[in-house]
Amino acid sequence: MPTRARPADPPKFAEERQQRIAQALREHGRVEVAQLAAEYAVSEDTVRRDLRQLAARGLVQKTHGGAVALHATVLPTAQRAGLLTGAKRAIAVAGARHVQPNDTLFIDGGTTTLALVQALKAADAPRPLTLVTQSLDVALAVTDEPQIRLVLAGGTWLPASRIFVGDAALATVRAHRADIAFLGACALHPRAGLTAHDPQEAALKRAMVDGAARRIVLTDATKLDVVAPSAVASIDDLDLVISDAAPAWLRERVQVETV
Predict the structure, then answer these.
(1) Which DSSP string do the residues of 76-118 spell out, in sequence order?
(2) How many other C-beta atoms are found inside a 10 Å radius of the C-beta of residue 196?
(3) Alpha-carbon torsion (181, 187, 188, 194), positive or negative
(4) In contact, 122 and 149? CB cutoff 8 Å
């Protein structure tokens, strides 16, 4: 999140302060409690109360240490890339530790799975690997890696998610088996499970779940306790969730690694 200068006249009243927080969310997509407290010369507890009130009005989704604009979970990939980058990097590094030489990996679309691929490009990363993906960005990231065999599940281009979908993409995924499926999360909910916004994207995720020995979900806190319209898998179908938050309902159902 870009550093903003402290205003010369910090807001004195909660309503004005909340209006400014809402404006910051519209501009940046996310806010952090500590930074807002310093910027507005109030306590962190005061900022948390402001965020709770904004959440009650349906304007934000609270996260560990801050909040994101409620629309951030459905932003196009290009706009989501700048949100929560530190958390995504940490989640990606943790995910990369589960990869062994000679593994075949399903790599889902999304900014957190792309961060995983960047982590797998480190000098000490395991090799060789086979990557099967429907994500153009993931594919482009490994074209210069001679010891990574790339299988691109091409098909119909879905611009908002920067992935290929449709029958051709689905057939490619179904033709392979993977040691690990690394899945991004549009939403993860205690009852609804793992869900996606686009039905064709959900179909590809389901195929990866079906074809992998292990299913690992990489997700930041903004996707937790959220439901999207297209079903992917129940929580019981997952082997591990790596996240920057671990609510009790998630820990009770599946192994969780927190970063």
Answers:
(1) -HHHHTTSSHHHHHHHHHHHHTT--TT-EEEE-SSHHHHHHHH
(2) 25
(3) negative
(4) no
Sheet with 178-184, edge to edge strand ranges: 148-152, 129-133, 104-107, 178-184, 212-218, 240-243, 255-258
Q: Is the sign of the CA dihedral 145, 219, 73, 185 positive or negative? A: positive
Q: What percent of the chain has pLDDT over 90?
A: 66
For the cut 90, the answer to whether the pLDDT of residue 46 exceeds it is yes
Q: What average pLDDT does this structure show over 182-193?
A: 95
Q: What angle do CA 152, 121, 30 make, to 5 degrees?
A: 85
**Amino acid letter, 6:** R
Please, which pLDDT band fits residue 7 given cuts at 50, 70 and 90? low
Angle separating helix axes 111-119 and 85-96, nearest 10 degrees: 50
Instruction: Return the CA Rg of the chain.
Output: 19
The single-letter code of the amino acid at 72 is: A
Between 19 and 89, where is the model more confident?
Answer: 89
Can you name the residues that pair with 231 across neighbouring β-strands?
195
Residue 161 has a CB neighbour count (10 Å cut-off) of 24
pLDDT tens, position by position, 177-187:
999 999 999 99
Structure tokens at 71: 């629309």
Across 74-99, average pLDDT = 74
